[in-house]
Structure formats: C-alpha cells, structure tokens
Amino acid sequence: MEKLIIGKAKELEKYIIGKRRDFHSYPELKFEEFRTSETIEEELKSLGFETFRAAGTGVIGIMDCGGVETVALRADMDALPMQEENDVPYKSRISGRMHACGHDGHMAMLLGACKVISEIRDAFKGKVKVIFQPAEEGGGGAKNIVDEGHLKGVGAIFGLHLWFELPSGFIATRKGPLMASSDGFLIKVRGRGGHGATPHLAKDPTAPAVDIYNAIQKLVSRAKDPFAPLALSLPFLQGSGAYNVIPDEVIIMGTLRTFDVDLRNEIVFKMEKIVKGYSSAWDCEGIFELSRMPYPPVVNHPELVDIVFRIGRLLGPVIEAPMTMISEDFSFYLSETKGVFVFLGIRNDEKGISYPHHHPKFDIDENVLWMGAALHALFAYNYLSLRR
C-alpha cells in the first residue's frame, strides 16, 4: 500500500505543480484568502470531501473512510506583502503580494494528498481531516481553528513546511522542540523634544532609548542559563527625522524567541523593568507592550516522529533537523493534540533556487512537491493503520 501511495503521488506531479503555480500567481494576504479558499473548496468537493469554512477564510475537508480515529493534515494559505522579483511564467499577478514562504506549495501538496486519498479511500480506516488554514504569517490562524473546536476528536496532526535550508528532496524533523516561540514587542520612550543645540531644555528620549537597547541585548548573556536557547533582536529604531532635532518620542521594535515558556515570561518581565527604569531615570515615560499574537514553541511528539523517519526513508534522505529560532503557528495545534511538523528541502543552486524565505526572489524546486503529497498521505495511512 505504501508503494501504491508513493506511485500515485508521483503520477500527480504535473497536477501538483499546476496547482502550486495557480496559487502562486494569485497570492492573498492573511484573512483575505478569498479566491484561494474558493479554489480549494471546489477541488475538495470534486474529490468527495465534505467541506466547511473555518477561521473566516479557511477551508476544512473531511473524508470519512469508516472507523473512529481521526487524523488531520494541515497546510497554510496566506502570502506576504512583498513585490516579487522573479521572472517566471507564474509570477505574482497581484502587485505588492507574493508567496515568498512556500505556502502555495503547501496547499498544492495537500491537494495532491487529497487526490491520492480519494482514489484509495477504502485503505484508510478512519477519518481524514484536511485543514487549509489562513493567516499563518502573524495572524495566528491556527489559534482560530483551535478556538473554534476543529481539533476536537483529532488523534494526531501532521504539518509540512518547504524548507530553504535543506537541499532539494531532503526530509528533516526531530523529537521534542523543533521551532521556537515567537513574540513581537514595541517600546516607546516619550520625552519632550527640542533643538539639538540645547538638549538641557528638552527631555531627550534618545538617551534612555540607547541605554534600553544595550541593556536588553545583555539579557542574552547575563539573565539566562548559557545552555538555554534565546534570541533577542531589536532591528527597528525610529526617532527624529533630522540631524539637529530631538524627538518627542523614540520607538523600538523587536522579537523574542525561545523554547522555554518560563524563560520567555522572565525575559518579558525583565524587558519591561528595563524600559520603565531607564526611562524614569531620564524623566521620560517608558512603555513596553507585546505587539503581536505570541506563538508557542513547536514541540513534536516522539512516537509520530518515528513514523515520519520511517516513511520518509521511502522517499529520500532523512536527517534530524536542528532546532530553529523561526516560529510557526502549527504550535497551537500541538497544544490540543499530539502532532509532528516536518521540513522538506527545496534549495537547488543548479536551478538558481538559492534565495531564502521572505525574499523577493524566493522560489522552490517544484520537482519535490509530489514527495510532500506522498508524505501527507503516507502519514495519514500509517497513523490510522496503527489504530485499527
């Protein structure tokens, strides 16, 4: 049966690539995936899936093959607010919108898996729930899916991400922590502006802002166990627009990544103390707030990783993935049920596919997409077979 699944996925290579190129040409941002969801729902219905909408622009399909167990397969749908710079026939037709993270391939691979499952549904003893989720890129669409109750009764969930850091065709995952938690934060230091030649007549917020920036950087080396992974970046600083003007306000924005929830909470607490303390010392007002929905860490279930390692070797090279500070809202599903998240390599320097995620020239090696479809279908088949 596994060979049959792989063979059928390989036969669908042109179908999967075609779907990917269609999605790529018409990218839509988070919670705006209207054309995308209509396309997906029509396809699922044609394959015999029962469908309904979720999380606004999301689509869920269910194939009831008999049995009581339910396995879920997930793909994210949203694009990014970027202008594509690739010169390809399937280039984005929407100005300022681009699939620069591989979600177009994710949807195409899962549709390929749905097609395989529909053709051999008698082999799947249970329910297969496919989740086409909106708003992964900062919108926390997965949390909406969970909050609406769509993970109830799901025994396991499988997710797959096309991964630039891996050579084309390589499969990687790991037991336990895989991807970090993610927080975005905003710092405002408010004072009173003035002329740069008379700083004593102002309450210069740039002075404490610089101290705050440097103090927060020191949290990485001085406020945690050296063996605990932690990343703190503050790449956005905005003050005066002129060389001789002291601003009323300085704004700093950054991101915090870790794998330990307690450490995350401690660092957030310390950052707020630093902001308020340094600002007060300079007679300014310091404001610290989280600016986006926090994403928990992605932590894989060991038993399900064993399944992936085994079925992955039927398709290509399988390696243990290193932990990464990149985040994913797939983590919200793992707060409800056990699951596994997997990377499939798409970097191919010979084809010029050598730009990272979120780059205006990001692209994928489409020759591996059938492998992703096979992984989805193989995981569903194996999980349900183990629980007959």
Estimated structural class = alpha/beta
Strand % is 25-35%
The total beta strand count reads 16
Largest sheet: 8 strands, mixed
Morphology: elongated
Please report the distance between the alpha carbons of the first and last residues.
Answer: 16 Å
Radius of gyration: 23 Å
Spans of at least 5 consecutive residues whose pLDDT stays below 50 are: none
Helix content range? 25-40%
Number of helices: 10
Largest beta sheet: strand ordering: 1-2-4-3-5-16-6-15
Overall pLDDT level: 97
Description:
By secondary structure, the chain is of the alpha/beta class. It is built from ten helices and 16 strands. The chain has helices at 2-11, 13-25, 34-46, 103-119, 141-147, 206-222, 261-281, 302-312, 331-334, 369-386, and strands at 50-54, 58-64, 70-76, 127-133, 156-167, 171-173, 176-179, 183-190, 194-195, 230-238, 245-246, 249-258, 285-290, 298-300, 318-320, 338-347. It has an eight-stranded mixed sheet with strand order 1-2-4-3-5-16-6-15, with helices on both faces. The protein is elongated, with a radius of gyration of 23 Å. The relative contact order is 0.20.
Question: What is the secondary structure topology, with strand pairs?
Answer:
Elements: H1 2-11, H2 13-25, H3 34-46, E1 50-54, E2 58-64, E3 70-76, H4 103-119, E4 127-133, H5 141-147, E5 156-167, E6 171-173, E7 176-179, E8 183-190, E9 194-195, H6 206-222, E10 230-238, E11 245-246, E12 249-258, H7 261-281, E13 285-290, E14 298-300, H8 302-312, E15 318-320, H9 331-334, E16 338-347, H10 369-386
Please describe the structure with a list of short key phrases separated by commas or semicolons.
388 residues, alpha/beta, 16 strands, elongated
